[in-house]
Amino acid sequence: MNTSNASSEDSEDNARNAGNARKASNTALLDAAKRGDAGAVRAALGAGADVEARDAELRTPLLLAALGDHIEAARALVVAGGDPNAQDARHDSAWLVTGVTGSVAMLRVLLPAGPDVTLRNRFGGVSVIPASERGHVAYVRAVVSETDIDVNHVNDLGWTALLEAVLLGDGGPAHQQVVKILLAAGARPDLADADGVTPLQHAHRRGFEEIAALLKGAQ
């Protein structure tokens, strides 16, 4: 038997086995992050899993943890160097998802990892915009006070956080509070949408007189 050929085959087998083991560890990590099992996350990382492994939709373990609001799993991934800015096929990231879920706890877990508050979602918006749309009062308060996020950022639809709070909100107490917070943080009530309609005009059109009063008072 040719010893050089045997050695080459052994090397290939070892490489193949190592690759399979790494793939299994990555799969275990992604699964653990998705279900929020912090212990299993640490075990998979200890077994050699890549903290930036991707699933079929290009979601990282940290993004999966953020989607499920799994705080301890996310904390373990941040400690291991997980990137809060890594975006998937839909341009979501762990950081951007916090604006959708409204999780202040997740926001604070991710802050030490250095999230890019200018990162844009598939609509060209920063995290405060979907949070304002959904009336996530505590999140909006936290993100404008604990980061330097631009409250006047305009997304690809031509809307600011203030416009989305009026256009897509229900005019109730939560969205009224969001409008108050945004205005106090420097949101410009004169920034109109792509058709030239201001937040105040939209508020009047939708019958949101409480919000209209807030906007008028800020002009």
Q: What are the salient characteristics of this protein?
A:
219 residues, elongated, mainly alpha, Serine Threonine Protein Phosphatase 5, Tetratricopeptide repeat, 2 domains
Structure description:
α8 packs parallel to α10 (173-184) and α9 (161-167) runs parallel beside α11 (199-206). This protein has two domains: 1-89, Alpha Horseshoe (Serine Threonine Protein Phosphatase 5, Tetratricopeptide repeat); 117-219, Ankyrin repeat-containing domain (Serine Threonine Protein Phosphatase 5, Tetratricopeptide repeat), CATH 1.25.40.20. With 219 residues, the chain is mainly alpha-helical. The protein is elongated, with a radius of gyration of 23 Å. The mean pLDDT is 93. It is 58% helix and 0% strand. The termini are far apart.
